[in-house]
Every structure is written in C-alpha cells, then in structure tokens.
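Table S7 (text form). Paired inputs.
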Amino acid sequence: MDFPPADAVTVLDGGLATELEARGHDLSDALWSARLLADDPDAIVAAHLAFFRAGAAIATTATYQASFPGFAARGLGRADAQQLLRLGVELAGAARAELAADGRRRWVAASVGPYGAALADGSEYRGRYGLTVAELTVWHRPRLEVLVDAGPDVLALETIPDADEARALVAAIAGSPVPAWLSYSIDAERTRAGQPLAEAFALLADVPEIVAVGVNCCTPADVAPAIATARAVTGKPVVVYPNSGEGWDARRGRWTGSARYSVEQAGRWVAGGATIVGGCCRVGPADIAGLARAIAGLR
C-alpha cells in the first residue's frame, strides 16, 4: 500500500509497551517490549489488535529496542536475532490480517529506535553518544536491512535525539525500497542533543526515502511549534505522537506528574497541519479511541 495516504489524516497507535504493561507483562528487561518477541509473541498481536480496534490505522512493531547486540546479550545468535526482527513485522501484519474483513486501510510501521535505546541507559533522551556518523551508520544498517526485507509498509525511525544520528539513518536507508518517516525526540525547539529543530529537519528535506517527518515521545506542549517548523522547512507530511506528558523518575523507577495528552490538543495538531497523529509512552487504546473519534468528527 502507498504510504503516507494523501487523502486523510491517519491515526497512529499509542504506546505498545504501555499496553503490554497494562496487560500484566514485566518489561523491565533491557530488551523492553522486544523481549516478548521471543517469550510471548501472542501478547504482541493482542496489543496491536487493541490499538487497531480502538481506531488506529498504523501499528508500530515491537522492534524499537531490538538490536543484534541486545539479542546477543540474551544468548541469541545472529540468525535468531534476524528471525525475531522479522517476526516483529509479521506479528503486526497478523493483527492487520485478522481485521481485514472490515475493509479498512491499515499499515505496518517497522519501529527503529535510536542507538541509545539499545544501550537501555536513557541515553536516547540525550544523544551525543560519542560515536561518529559513520559508526552509527554501520551500527544501524544491518537491522534496517532485515526489517526492510520483512516487508513493512514504512520504517518508523523514531525517538531520534540527535541530528548526527539522523544523518546516519539517512545514509543507512539510502536506496531503500521501503519509505520511512523520521521523528525526533525534542525539548522545546531543539533536539534532545541541543541542535535547533529547524536545522535538524533541514537534513531531511531533500531525502526521497523520508516521506514524513515529525516528533515523538515529547511533551504534548512541544508538538504544535514542531509541526510549524517541520512544514516550513521540509514541506513533507508531518507525523506527531507525543507521550502523555508525565515525567519519568529513573531513580525511583516510576512516572510522576499528571497526563496532559488530550483529544482537544490533537485537534489543534491536525488543524496545524499534522497528517499522522498518535501517541507514545503512557498513551493507551482508550486515548487512541478518543483521538480517532475526534479526527472522524473533523472530517
């Protein structure tokens, strides 16, 4: 299927790990939700189905934190790791196929998290890993090749904190037959690594493989200005999926503050030009159901 759809605002899913945890799964492992690719793949299908039934048209796979070094630390060889990466795409596809009779258009987005996610130390919210662009390109390319071969509709290069890592990903997907979106993790008008967001988006403006740009896993308040910047700099479709707005206390291992994700805000994001809208951490199927209803009302 062509992606992104040009005729409507498309609803993305919410936090896959959030839904898996709500269903009782312990994701404290360094592989996070990717652990269930090996341990409980049916649980992943069930979570995808929950978001699809809530009104999402795009499922992001459980491969965000999946990497060859991460799987190797669990004692899995390269062939097994490749199989699990492909399985992530297959499970989202299975959930889509289960609902195919309703005739709705749905897409599978293969999640590709940043290098920092594989470190499982929070550095995906800082960037500046101490690696060169060339080294990051070499690190990312092998799993990208596996995911592309698995046949998703789009690659979700997501939660990217650093413009240098965006450069590496652009190099790694050059010539890819599968389109991609790239979404930055931001703090106000800058990437998490501190680069001006306009400069970070400018890196993507003339990349044919990147068919949409945007932000994710940021506070909802940062979304609207980012939409304006992304549209002005790139002219590409804009994807936004912030987290709930709660804070994560890494020392205590718990969320703090109150949720600030709302359907009313999402309506303003669409009015501002976002064409793919969803949620990230702490945004569940009920939130996506409300979002889907609101977008249907806008139509």
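Next pair, protein 2 of 2.
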Amino acid sequence: MKRILLAASIAGLSACSSYQVPDSPVFAANSHWVIMPMANHSNTPMAAEKVEEILNAQLYAKGIRATIYPELNTNDLAVIIDDSAKRRQAQTWLASQPADYIITGSVEEWHYKSGLDGEPAVGITLEIKSAKSKTTLWRATGSRGGWGRESVSGTGHIVIDELLDGVNVENLE
C-alpha cells in the first residue's frame, strides 16, 4: 500500500511540470553573450521583459555576463504595444555589438490559473544562437504549474533554472 501511495504521489508531482532540455555544446562563459527580445505569446503584458530580467540574473549566477538589449525609449503607446519596433531597435543595436552568442526565446504562459487556489503557470522556450552564423546551437522548453501560495515569478525562476541546467558552460578564467 505504501508503494502505491508513493508511486501515486510521484506521478502527481511530476504531472505539474514538463521539460525538454537537451545538453548543449560547451560554451565559453567569457564569450560575449547578448540577450535579445523574447516573443510574448502569453496573455500577460510585459511577461517577456520579466523573463529576460530573470534570465539575465540566472546567467550571471552561472558565470555568464550577458548584455541585455537597450530599452525602447518612447512614450508612444502604439510603439510600446507593437513588439516589432522593439525588435527592430534591438537588431540595430546588435549590429554594433561584439557578440558571440545570442540568447532569445519565447514566453508561452505567465499567469495565475483561475480557480480557488490560483496556482501560477509558466511556459518558456530558450534558444542560443551563434551571432556570426545565426544558426541555432541549443534550444530547450519547459513549463510548470506551481502551488497555490507560489508566485508566478518564483515559478518562472524554477523553469529558467531547469532550462539553464542543460547549458554547458566552461569558465576559462
């Protein structure tokens, strides 16, 4: 009976998250890393910008000193809502950067589920590209539903951390 309960508990807990994280090639941490705008496919405004900031902090903790694209300086609401203006400005900025690797991706989910407990739900895809060839070197995706008292950003930290566990970084200092 104990084994059945243990197996059911493990199955129930593992159903809350899903990850596809392949191992990456070995990247040099001291290379020039750039975080570019992420696509926001969620229904939450500014979710991509939140993920970019969390990603930048977690890369720093792994020994990667990434530069994030500059903010879009405008008061025009139409431009702020339209991601294409931000992407164009970021691409122009990237052309002047000595980048080796580009990190980008998308946010599929970033919200609280409706209902009594309102658990957080997060889905993120990360991609590392060569800045020179623009080819994708690594891509991973993950999603997680948190518990009732957990925050969306806390759940996002966990998902990003799980994804970055697949990135092999070599410190050459």
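The CA atoms of residues 133 and 140 lie 20 Å apart.
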